[in-house]
Structure formats: structure tokens, C-alpha cells
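Entry type: protein chain
Record version: 2
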Amino acid sequence: MLGQRASPSSLGVAGFTLQASPNVGNALRDLVRHLDLHDQGGVGNLVTKGQSTSFIYTIHRSGVEATDQICDMSMAIFCKIMRSLCGENWDPTELFLPRRLPQDSKPYHKFFRAPVRFNADRSPVEFSNHWLTHTPPKADPLLHRFLEEEAEKLHANQHKSLVSELRRLLRKSLAVHKSSVKDIACQLGMHERTLNRRLREEGTSFRSELEDIRYEVARQLLADTKIPLSQIATAIDYADPTAFCRAFKHWSGISPTDWRRLYSHPSH
């Protein structure tokens, strides 16, 4: 219900910037780049494969409650944004939600107007590539340039710590299976040796932060979905379920199966 009331302007500078973008592809890249100006707890990814593009929203802040409801709302907001950019006739081709099947799924199908796949390990909204070249009704190159400058100034004033930025990038990169130290160091604009040295100075390590993120994601998926352990292992970049189960027991003291039985949300 909250997501259905949203509009691009709900996202502040980030929303106004994407409205003024010259085409939808540029607008979505703006959304991914500037989402943190509005949302400090989530990150977006834009992935194009073949004739399809996906926008993936993931929560990176630890200890967040009601992650299933947050994902529901975020996906609804994204679809409202796309309909404002492309017209009310825009529909996704498919949508995935990392949550159990709700008691009543009819509102989901009515609003999204597309197949909705529950019990997913991520939350991609898929749509045809041809929308990327569509011109939004409020496209304005001069205004877009001005808003981009304002967004960059806001980014410069954020003063994020290295560890908080690392965790944000790890969660974002884990969703597309590109979470190696080399991948992350490249995104931070530094050599991996420099990254490791600076993390040691902060009293942590790349592996420790990656394991924390994996543990957080694993708990979300165990609590919110019914997907098998093998799929969870793949989602957090473990080679096989055995390695994942061993790691999870090390983190929590109990097996993932026991953790799901004790802490999972009620099934419908």
C-alpha cells in the first residue's frame, strides 16, 4: 500500500535526477548511483543479459527487521517509478521476492501485473531491454546536468567510513556474485593490498566483513523463505551446501536447519 503511493519525487534529489534523465537506461543508472542519498540501508543493481534487464534491490544494513515487507515496498516503488518514466502501460516481464508466499497473493499480482515468484534468493524485477531507450516525459538535459552536480555534492558531504562503504559494496556485489577482494578494491578505486592494509588499521579484515554479510543474508533467507540450503549456499557464493552448513554452524553455534526451525517466520 505504501509502495503504490510512491513517485520518483519520493526519493528526493535521486528521484528528480532520474526524472530529468535523457532515457530510461540513464535514469536507472542514476537510481543505482544515487539511491544512497535517500536510502542508507539498501543498494540497487542493474543487470542486462540478452534481451532482458533486471533491477535488483538488496538490504545491506545488519539487524533490519521485516525485511520481507521492506522488499515488497521497494519493488512496488520501483514499478511506480518505471510507470512514471515509461507510461502506465509498462509492466515487468517477471518479478521475484525473497519472502514466503503470503496468505493472500492476489494484491501482488493485481499491482505488478506480471508473474510474481515467491521464495526467491534475490529480488530482481525483469523487463524488456527496449524500455532502456525510452525517453521519460520530463526529460530535461540541462536540469539533469544541474541535478547530477547537486547529487555529487551531496555524495561528497556524506563522509562514509571505509568499513561502512565496504559492507555496502559487499552486499551489492554478492547479489551478482562479484564479491572478491579484487572486485571490491576496484570499485573503491584502490589496490587490494591497500584495501587490506587500511582494513587492518580499522581492526578488521576483508574476509571478516564478507563473512558477516554472508551470515546476515543467510539468516534473512532462512527466516523469510523456504528455499533449500543448496540455493542459499549458491546465493552467498559458497561452492557447496556442506561448506555453507559448516560456516553457518561456526557463526551461530547451530545448523542452518535448526536455526530455520527456531527463528523462521510463520508459514502460510
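Comment: The first strand starts at residue 42 and ends at 49.
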